[in-house]
Structure to design on (180 residues):
């Protein structure tokens, strides 16, 4: 269906069935961990929106939903300076915050969002990510708490993750294999 918009040579890295299964597993764990706790579920936009929408529909929690927008990428494929585009006005004091993002690449975005939520008075802050990338680059001093998938160090796109700000709507995760 998406062949006309996929870049030439793009390959499926993770299919939609695997994404759905791992999302359900995470939801089951989060439902257990946050049963009877007040939760603020914050999506990190834009990348986290597809995963957050699917995950949140499986959460049976007393939760308020909002988003924040913080980025290191823009239209680039490598991280740069952190830029805050939107900070939510939702009251976090006395609540447990769950940050939801598409990818843990080096962890700087989640680290900054975590620190900001703590400054807002959150009782606790945990993060859930769709993808953790394994690589040799340095990571921030921050680890995601819930991880759906771990992948090798490819530039990936689809299911919320972009390729030059496009193709977030793809139902699977794609990558471009190295040219032989």
């Amino acid at each position: 269906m998406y062949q006309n918009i996929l870049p030439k040579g793009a390959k499926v890295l993770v299919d939609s069935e695997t994404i759905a299964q791992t999302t359900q597993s995470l939801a089951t764990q989060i439902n257990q961990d946050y049963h009877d706790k007040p939760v603020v579920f914050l999506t990190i936009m834009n990348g986290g929106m597809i995963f957050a929408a699917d995950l949140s529909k499986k959460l049976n929690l007393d939760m308020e939903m909002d988003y924040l927008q913080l980025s290191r990428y823009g239209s680039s494929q490598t991280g740069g300076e952190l830029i805050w585009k939107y900070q939510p006005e939702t009251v976090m004091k006395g609540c447990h915050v769950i940050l939801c993002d598409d990818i843990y690449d080096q962890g700087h975005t989640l680290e900054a969002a975590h620190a900001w939520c703590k400054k807002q008075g959150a009782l606790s802050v945990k993060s859930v990510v769709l993808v953790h990338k394994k690589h040799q680059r340095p990571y921030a001093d921050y680890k995601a708490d819930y991880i759906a998938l771990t992948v090798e160090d490819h530039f990936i796109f689809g299911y919320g993750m972009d390729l030059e700000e496009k193709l977030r709507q793809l139902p699977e995760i794609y990558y471009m294999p190295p040219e032989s």
User: Anything to note?
Assistant: The two ends are 27 Å apart (CA to CA). DSSP finds three helices and nine strands in the chain. The domain at 16-151 is CATH 3.40.50.2020 (Rossmann fold). Strands lie at 11-14, 39-45, 63-71, 83-86, 96-104, 124-133, 146-151, 156-157, 173-175.
